[in-house]
C-alpha cells in the first residue's frame, strides 16, 4: 500500500541489502546529512553577518545611508551573471521563452524581494534593535503557513518543538541586549518601526516560499536570473526617486569603495547560495538557521565595536543550534499524492489512474507560479 510521498534532498545516501552494517551506515549517513544541513545554514548566517558589518561601517563611520543603492548593486551582479546566462541558453530555458510564459509573476516576485529588504532596513530608523530582532522572527510562521497551504508540506511534532526552541533562543538574545544596553534605535515612532518589520518579514516569507517552489520545480538559474532582471530594473527606479540625493552626499574614497565591494560580494554570495540550501533543506529550515546571524555579528562587534558581553549570548547561540538540530533531525512530508490534489483542484480535467504497483514518482506541482515541468523530483515512498 502506497503512503504519502516525502521529499528526499539531493545527495541523500541510498542503501540496499540488510544487516547491522547497513543500519550503521544508514545512521552515519543520516547524521552526516543533519550536520551538513546545519552547517550550510550557518554559512548563510556568516554571509549575513558580513552584510551587516559592512552596512554598519558605511552608515556609522562614513554616513553613507544608501540601502537601496546597496541592493541595486547586488541585483546588477545577479543580472550580469544569471540573466545573461539565461539569454544565451537555447529552447524553453531561454530568457525570452521564460519571459513570454511568466514575466508578470517574476515581476511581482522581484518587487516583493526589493521591498522586503527596504522595509526592514527602514525600520531601524524608528524602532529599537531588539524589536527588529524579535519581530523579524515573524517570517518563520509566515513561511510555515505558506508552505502548509501552497507547498502541501506537513510537519511533525519534533519540527514544532525545534521551532519553539529556536525562538526561545532569539528571546534569550533579546534579553541579553536589554541587559547590556544594546537597544539602539530612535524609538520615537516605535509602532511605525514595528509595523515596517512585520511587513518586511511577511514579504520575506512570501519570497522564500516562492523561491523554494521555483528551485525545486524549475531551476535555480531561472530564479536568480529573473530576480536580477526585475530587481535591477525596479530598484534602479526606486534609487532614482528616493536616494539620488544621498548618493551625492557620500564622501567617495577607496575605503568606501572597498566596503561597497565587500557588501555586494556577501549579498551576491547569499543570493547565489541560498537556493542551493533551500533545495537541500527547506525555506523554513533556512530561516531558522539565519537566526544565528545576529549572534555572529555580535561576536564580531565585541572586537570591532567594543560591545558589552553577556553569557546569555552564548546560551542563545547554543539554544538556537539545538533547535536547528531538532528541526533537521526529521524530514517533512507532502500531505498527499500531488496528482490527486491537482485533480481535486481541476475536477474538469482527465482522471489520472495511479499505478497499483511499482515505485510512485508523482510530478510535484504545488502552485500555479509557472508551467508544469516534466522533471520529476526524487521521492521516498513508505
UniProtKB/TrEMBL annotation:
<feature type="transmembrane region" description="Helical">
    <location>
        <begin position="34"/>
        <end position="53"/>
    </location>
</feature>
<feature type="transmembrane region" description="Helical">
    <location>
        <begin position="133"/>
        <end position="153"/>
    </location>
</feature>
<dbReference type="InterPro" id="IPR037185">
    <property type="entry name" value="EmrE-like"/>
</dbReference>
<protein>
    <submittedName>
        <fullName>Solute carrier family 35 member F1</fullName>
    </submittedName>
</protein>
<comment type="similarity">
    <text>Belongs to the SLC35F solute transporter family.</text>
</comment>
<feature type="transmembrane region" description="Helical">
    <location>
        <begin position="254"/>
        <end position="273"/>
    </location>
</feature>
<feature type="transmembrane region" description="Helical">
    <location>
        <begin position="73"/>
        <end position="91"/>
    </location>
</feature>
<feature type="transmembrane region" description="Helical">
    <location>
        <begin position="221"/>
        <end position="242"/>
    </location>
</feature>
<feature type="transmembrane region" description="Helical">
    <location>
        <begin position="285"/>
        <end position="307"/>
    </location>
</feature>
<dbReference type="Pfam" id="PF06027">
    <property type="entry name" value="SLC35F"/>
</dbReference>
<dbReference type="GO" id="GO:0022857">
    <property type="term" value="F:transmembrane transporter activity"/>
</dbReference>
<dbReference type="GO" id="GO:0016020">
    <property type="term" value="C:membrane"/>
</dbReference>
<feature type="transmembrane region" description="Helical">
    <location>
        <begin position="191"/>
        <end position="209"/>
    </location>
</feature>
<feature type="transmembrane region" description="Helical">
    <location>
        <begin position="103"/>
        <end position="121"/>
    </location>
</feature>
<comment type="function">
    <text>Putative solute transporter.</text>
</comment>
<feature type="transmembrane region" description="Helical">
    <location>
        <begin position="160"/>
        <end position="179"/>
    </location>
</feature>
<keyword id="KW-1133">Transmembrane helix</keyword>
<feature type="transmembrane region" description="Helical">
    <location>
        <begin position="313"/>
        <end position="335"/>
    </location>
</feature>
<keyword id="KW-0472">Membrane</keyword>
<keyword id="KW-0813">Transport</keyword>
<dbReference type="InterPro" id="IPR009262">
    <property type="entry name" value="SLC35_F1/F2/F6"/>
</dbReference>
<dbReference type="InterPro" id="IPR052221">
    <property type="entry name" value="SLC35F_Transporter"/>
</dbReference>
<keyword id="KW-0812">Transmembrane</keyword>
Amino acid at each position: 500500500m502506497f503512503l504519502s510521498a516525502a521529499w528526499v534532498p539531493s545527495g541523500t545516501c541510498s542503501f540496499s541489502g540488510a544487516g547491522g552494517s547497513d543500519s550503521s551506515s544508514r545512521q552515519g549517513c543520516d547524521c552526516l546529512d543533519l550536520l551538513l544541513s546545519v552547517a550550510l545554514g550557518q554559512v548563510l548566517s556568516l554571509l549575513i553577518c558580513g552584510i551587516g558589518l559592512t552596512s554598519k561601517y558605511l552608515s556609522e563611520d562614513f554616513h553613507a545611508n544608501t540601502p537601496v543603492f546597496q541592493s541595486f548593486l547586488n541585483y546588477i551582479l545577479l543580472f550580469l551573471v544569471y540573466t545573461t546566462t539565461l539569454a544565451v541558453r537555447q529552447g524553453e530555458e531561454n530568457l525570452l521563452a521564460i519571459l513570454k510564459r511568466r514575466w508578470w509573476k517574476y515581476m511581482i516576485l522581484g518587487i516583493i524581494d526589493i521591498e522586503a529588504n527596504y522595509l526592514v532596513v527602514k525600520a531601524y530608523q524608528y524602532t529599537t534593535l531588539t524589536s527588529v530582532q524579535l519581530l523579524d522572527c515573524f517570517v518563520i510562521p509566515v513561511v510555515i503557513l505558506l508552505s502548509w497551504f501552497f507547498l502541501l508540506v506537513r510537519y511533525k511534532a519534533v519540527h514544532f518543538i525545534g521551532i519553539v526552541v529556536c525562538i526561545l533562543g532569539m528571546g534569550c538574545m533579546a534579553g541579553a541586549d536589554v541587559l547590556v544596553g544594546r537597544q539602539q534605535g530612535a524609538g520615537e515612532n516605535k509602532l511605525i518601526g514595528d509595523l515596517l518589520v512585520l511587513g518586511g518579514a511577511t514579504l520575506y516569507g512570501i519570497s522564500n516560499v516562492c523561491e523554494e517552489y521555483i528551485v525545486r520545480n524549475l531551476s535555480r538559474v531561472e530564479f536568480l536570473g529573473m530576480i536580477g532582471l526585475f530587481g535591477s530594473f525596479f530598484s534602479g527606479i526606486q534609487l532614482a526617486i528616493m536616494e539620488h540625493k544621498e548618493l551625492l552626499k557620500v564622501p567617495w574614497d577607496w575605503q568606501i569603495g572597498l566596503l561597497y565591494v565587500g557588501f555586494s560580494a556577501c549579498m551576491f554570495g547569499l543570493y547565489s547560495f541560498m537556493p542551493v540550501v533551500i533545495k537541500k533543506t527547506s525555506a523554513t529550515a533556512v530561516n531558522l538557521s539565519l537566526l544565528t546571524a545576529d549572534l555572529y555579528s555580535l561576536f564580531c562587534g565585541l572586537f570591532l565595536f567594543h560591545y558589552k558581553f553577556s553569557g546569555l549570548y552564548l546560551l542563545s547561540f547554543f539554544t538556537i543550534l539545538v533547535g536547528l538540530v531538532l528541526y533537521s533531525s526529521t524530514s517533512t512530508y507532502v500531505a498527499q499524492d500531488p496528482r490527486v490534489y491537482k485533480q481535486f483542484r481541476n475536477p474538469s480535467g482527465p482522471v489520472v489512474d495511479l499505478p497499483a504497483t511499482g515505485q510512485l514518482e508523482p510530478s510535484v506541482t504545488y502552485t500555479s507560479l509557472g508551467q508544469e515541468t516534466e522533471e520529476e523530483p526524487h521521492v521516498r515512498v513508505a
